[in-house]
Amino acid sequence: MGALLTDRLPGGAQPVLQARTGRAAVGGDAFDSGMWPLHREAHLGPGAPWRQDPAVMVLAPLSAEDSAHVPFVIDATALAGPVGRIVVTIDYSPFSKALTFHPGRALPFLGFGVKYETAGALRASVQAGPDQIWHVGAAYVSALGGGCSAPAVSHARPDWQRGFGEMRARLWPDSGRLRLCIRHPQDTGLADGIPAHHLTSLALHDAQGAEIARLDLHEPVEENPSFTFLLPPHLAAEPVTLHAQDTMGNRLSGRVEPST
Amino acid sequence: MTGFRSLTRRSLVAGAAAATALALPRAVAQAQPRGYDLLPQEVAAGLWMITGAPESFARSNGGAIVNIVLLASAEGAIIIDTGSTARMGAEIRAFADQRLGGVARVINTHHHPDHWFGNIAFADRPILALPATGDLCRRSAPDYAASLYALLGPWMAGTTPTPPGQRIESDELVIGGRTLRLLALSGHSAADLVVQDVQTGVLIAGDLLFLDRAPSFPDADVARWLRALDRLAGLETSGVVPGHGPFHRSGAALAQTRQYLELTRDRLDQAAALGLSPVEAMAAGPAPAFRALGANPEEYIRTVAQRWADHERTALPVIGGL
C-alpha cells in the first residue's frame, strides 16, 4: 500500500478499497479514451510521451457520496527517479485541470478533494525518471454530478465571510504527514450570480523560508479544501509555513509546528 | 391475499428472464416488470411487518430495504413508513385495502426517502410526521428523487415525492381504538419519531435502531443519537421493529446500534488524529467487528464521506488565516 497509513486502523491492513489499474481505472474503456487525448495535448504538452503506470496509485471511493467533495489520494512514491510535476485532470469536468503539484522536496504524495460534475476518471500524470516522461494513473468515480455548477454551500449562510481563510493544520513528525484545511468557498463561477473566487496557489516553506513544495490550484478543488502532504523526516521535524493566494488577491498564511 | 401477490406474472417473467438472459443485451435482460411481492408478516397481534433487505439501495432490491409496519385498527390500517417508490407504496396499500379494511392514517418516522417516497400511494389519506420532518421532506425531495432515479431506474416509475401534510404535535394518538405512544427524538436525523403500540407493547423505532445492517449517517449527530438510545433503553417493550433489520424481542438492536455508533465515532476520531486522509479512512474499512454487517463496507464508506469533517475539525488546530 506504499505510503498509505490505512494499516494504522484496526483491520486496515486488509483494505476494502484498492487502487485500480488499466481499463478498470478509467471505467472500463481503453485507457487512452474519452477526453484524455485532448487533455493530454492541452495540459501535458503536444506530443508529450506518456504511459499508464501502476506505480502511480490513485485511490478514491468507487462512487461519490457528495459530488462537491470527492476525496482522492495520489501516491507516486513507488516511481523510480526524480519526480517533476504531477498534473491532475478530470475527464469530464467543465474545468479539466484540477491542480498541478510540484512536490519539490516533499514526497510525490498528495491527498485532496475535488468537485465532480459527472461520472468519470480523475487522472494523475506524473513527470518522472531520468527521461521525465509522463507516468499516468487514474481512478474512475461514479457521480450523479452537480458538483461544479452548484453554488458553494457557504453562500447559503449570511455570515459566510466569517472564518474566511481560516487554516487548520497539523504536522506529524513520525509519519511525515501534513494535513491542512482552508476555509474558502472555491466558487467556480458556474453558479448563477456568483463570480469565480478560488485559490490559485498554495506553497509550503521550511523553517528557513525556502520552498518545500507548491500547488497550482484551479476551480474543481472542493469548497473548504483539504490537503495531505508527505514530508521527509528532516522537514517533518521542523515548523512548516503555508502561504496561499486566491483570485481576489487575498493572501492567507499559517505556521504549523510538528506535534504527535 | 387474492390479487396481492402477482405470482403468475412473476413466475412467467422469471421463466422468461432465465430463458433469455444469456441471449439478450444486459439492458434488455434487466428490464423486468416492477413488482416487489412484499410479504407482510403478523409479528404481534394486529401488527404486520414487511422486512426490508439488509442492503443499500440497488437495482437488485428495487429500494425495498426498509421495514414497514401496518397496524390493524377499527378504522383501517395505520401505516408506519411507506418505502422508497410509488410501487412499494401501492403494494403496501393493496394489502391494507384487501386485508385490513383500508387505510386510516400514514405516519412517516423521518425524512430519509426509503421511509416516505411510497407516500404517493396514500395521497388521499392523512399522512402524519413530526413538524421538522415535513419541512425536511419538502426541502430534500428534489435531491432524493434525482439520486433514487439514478440508483433505481425504472423501479422509480411514477414516484412523485409526497411529503407528509399533517404535523404530529402530541405524544399520543388514538386511531380506531388503537393507542400509539409517540416519542420525538433526534440523532439519526434532526427529527426521529418513535412509535410504541400500546396494545402489543411493540416499539417501532425508525432508524434510531438498526440490526444486522450497518446504520446510515447522512444526517447523524452521534452524541444526540446515543442520548436517544438512552431514552429507548428506558422503555418497557415486548418487541422491537428497527428501521432496518429483523423483528426481535431482545435488546439486540439497541446494543448493536450503540456499539456501531461508538466504534465508528472512535475510528474516525482516531483516523483524523493519526493524520489519515478521508480516502485512507474509507480504505481501512469498517471496524473489524462490523465488516460483515449488511450494507457494509458501502455504508461505512458513505459515513466517512458524510461525517469526516466533524471528526477532523477537532483533530486540527487553527494555525493561520487571512
Order of helices and strands of chain A: HHEEEEEEEEEEEEEHEE
Q: Biggest sheet of chain A, in brief?
A: 9 strands, mixed
Number of strands of chain B: 13
Number of helices of chain B: 8
Oligomer: heterodimer
Structural write-up:
The complex is a heterodimer of chains A (260) and B (322). Chain A has helices at residues 22-25, 36-44, 233-236, and strands at residues 50-52, 57-59, 70-75, 83-90, 97-102, 109-114, 120-128, 133-141, 167-172, 177-182, 199-205, 211-217, 226-230, 240-246, 251-256. The two termini of chain A are 23 Å apart. In chain A, a hairpin with a 6-residue loop joins β4 (83-90) and β5. By secondary structure, chain A is mainly beta. The longest helix of chain A has 9 residues, at 36-44. The model of chain A has no long low-confidence stretch (mean pLDDT 92). With 322 residues, chain B is α/β, with parallel strands linked by helices. Chain B has helices at 7-20, 26-30, 86-99, 131-152, 222-233, 252-274, 278-283, 298-315, and strands at residues 41-44, 47-50, 68-71, 77-80, 103-107, 127-129, 166-167, 172-175, 178-185, 192-197, 202-204, 239-241, 318-321. In chain B, the strands form two sheets. Chain B has a seven-stranded mixed sheet. In chain B, strands 8-9-10-11-12 form a five-stranded mixed sheet, with no helix packed on it. In chain B, α5 (222-233) runs antiparallel to α6 and α6 packs across α8 (298-315). Chain B is globular and about 65 Å long. Chains A and B meet through β3, β9, β10 and β15 of A and α4, α6, α7, α8 and β13 of B. Chain A: This is Quinoprotein dehydrogenase-associated SoxYZ-like carrier. Chain A: InterPro entries: Fuse-rel_SoxYZ, Ig-like_fold, Ig_E-set, SoxY, SoxY_sf.
Quick summary of this structure?
Chain A is mainly beta and 260 residues long. Chain A has helices at 22-25, 36-44, 233-236; strands at 50-52, 57-59, 70-75, 83-90, 97-102, 109-114, 120-128, 133-141, 167-172, 177-182, 199-205, 211-217, 226-230, 240-246, 251-256.
